[in-house]
Known about the structure:
two-stranded antiparallel ribbon, alpha/beta, binds NADPH dihydro-nicotinamide-adenine-dinucleotide phosphate, globular, 11 strands, 20 helices
Amino acid sequence: DKARIGVTGLATMGRNLARNLARHGHPVAVHNRTPSRTKALVEEFGDEGTFLPAESAERFVASLERPRRLVIMVKAGPATDAVIEEFAPLLEPGDMIVDGGNAHFADTRRREADLRERGIHFVGTGISGGEEGALHGPSIMPGGSAESYESLGPLLEDISAHVDGTPCAVHVGPDGAGHFVKMVHNGIEYADMQLIAESYDLLRHAAGLAPDEIAAVFREWNTGRLESYLIEITAEVLAHTDAATGRPFVDVVLDQAEQKGTGRWTVQSALDLGVPVGGIAEAVFARSVSGHAALREAARGLPGPARAGAETLPGVPDAIEKALYASKIVAYAQGFHEIQAGSAEYGWNIDAGAMATIWRGGCIIRARFLDRIRAAYEADPQTPTLLTDAHFAEALGDAQEAWRNVIAIAAKHGVPVPGFSAALAYYDSLRAPRLPAALTQGQRDFFGAHTYRRADREGTFHTLWGGDRTEVTA
Ligand code: NDP
């Protein structure tokens, strides 16, 4: 008998994805460069379903029913190209290669174009949810041709997370659309985590709460509109005590955040697309700042206010909740703007509301909040920004005093809040009747004759700054 689908690359993700498929009754062929992993998988979990182990690429391909569905779960980058080159010559027209790794969408576009020429469908797919998600139901964001989704979609939907009976998997769009959306998902995740971190920092150093008290605040928040996986695990981490020292776990961890690159990609591609994603960018930079140990050491003695420490500021937790919710709305609005800009640039025709729908389960940013975003796109699929959705606009209005006070308190106590500040600055920039960009244009015209447009009439103009300062049509 043949396997319905095959997985090659059986490290953390691939092995759990293969088990997920098998547990759902899909016979799955399994293969890994180093055969010991394949053997170990079948030995440990062989009773969970039908596994067809193969040591060679040829045997692996031969064990797949046609059209063949071959999932690659290997280290992103050159390894993916190497594995594609190993398998593509063994496939026939109509077969599919699915890359579930964290590939850059530009690589996916290149690979898709190349394989399309060879008659093979290439499906770059985002898979979110880490190790646990891969096993119990991830959020799946496949790109590639609509034809490939017809054959692959039912399988992916079957093994994905489900929320209210709806699978957290949908065809995102052609070629690199899936990996692009996964990238932005991760950028949003960075922003969400940074905003939560800033909230913690303020609760600790402006409201004077201890880690276990802050855990209780997050637990409370998790019963309201902020309910989400990230808030839930934040409470868990803050309540955890280090066994070796008896101190709060958060106090013994080195305060240098690491990153694997998808947040950076989100910002790089936003720059290319000309989309302002300050909230996401500040989250990436905040991790970067934290990692510059020598720089931080050199600057530690610089003057500034002492942190409040044990001083308790009443009402601050509630204000922070509002600031967090408002800033979170902004960060998601920026991420969705990037998705819409990418979709327009590459002709993907991405349904933004569908992305919110498949992020409700399985992935790291899963949250009640995403239902709101789905509803916002349902109400107005063409909305230029989520900020103006009735629900979000009301929440932003309600947060005004708190949001601004929290940032003021942070500044007063020397607690850095780049995420909150960037979010508010974006919000105020969008709502401003006039921006100082007019002055910037004047400067550019002065030093570089870059010309400007006028608010009161059509055309492009230049002022003769070095001469009699008359205005000429450019
Ligand atoms: P790793 O990224 O650690 O990759 C290890 C796997 O890649 C092994 O199976 C290894 O084979 C294989 N491999 C590496 N180089 C080659 C090569 N040149 N030829 C053939 N096989 C090769 O595994 P993960 O399971 O952590 O992740 C897999 C993919 O999923 C990555 O792209 C990752 O970015 C992505 N991802 C990971 C998530 C996570 O939480 N870990 C979440 C979402 C996506 P061997 O055993 O022979 O060394």
